[in-house]
Amino acid sequence: MITSFLDICNMALDYCNVRNITSIDENTKQSNKCKMWYDTVRKSLLMNINASFSIKRAVLAEVANYTPVYGYSKAYALPHDCLQVLNLDNPLQDKYYQIEGNYLYCDEYNSDEIVKIRYIADVQDVTKFDAEFCDCLALKLAEKICLPLTEDEQKAGMLKQLAQQKYVETSTKYGRDNRVVVINKPKYRQSKYYSEIQDFNYPVK
Description:
Layout (H helix, E strand, L loop, with lengths): L4 H12 L12 H21 L5 E6 L13 E4 L4 E7 L2 H5 L1 E4 L2 E4 L8 E7 L9 H20 L2 H25 L2 E4 L16 E4 L2
Antiparallel strand pairs: 1-6, 2-5, 3-6, 4-5, 7-8
């Protein structure tokens, strides 16, 4: 059972066929490479694979007394754990918005408009990871650290292939979990922008 990121680091080291570590701070070549790459690989994988456990929803608060310099009329603060916005609930907003820094910029289409988003959260608690993600993360980490640790190009090449295969399998799994349906005539309230609404893909509620 995976209970800490050290477990995932040791899974990666097992794939490299090198000695495990007992602490990320033990100052060995293995621990230093794991420390260097773990968080980068974890965040990159979360952002690219759309893991079900990392998808959250939020209602954004407008930033008071702040207006973008140009282009949009409203600014909203993104959640502190947001790695990537997947979509906005309102199809009009979803067509026209911009992420800059920790803000989401979009226009106000009605006086009572609020912004609802689905996003990828920066999940750090490994007990929230499922088995597929743990194995994929361990392989992607192993891909990064194998050659510096083993100086074995053949083994590093093999791990790169395994990691890519696992990535495709895991992406496919999460793709099924987050399938979309097509709604041809969304029943959104009328506005001067309503005529722009045609067909949109929406995630299953």
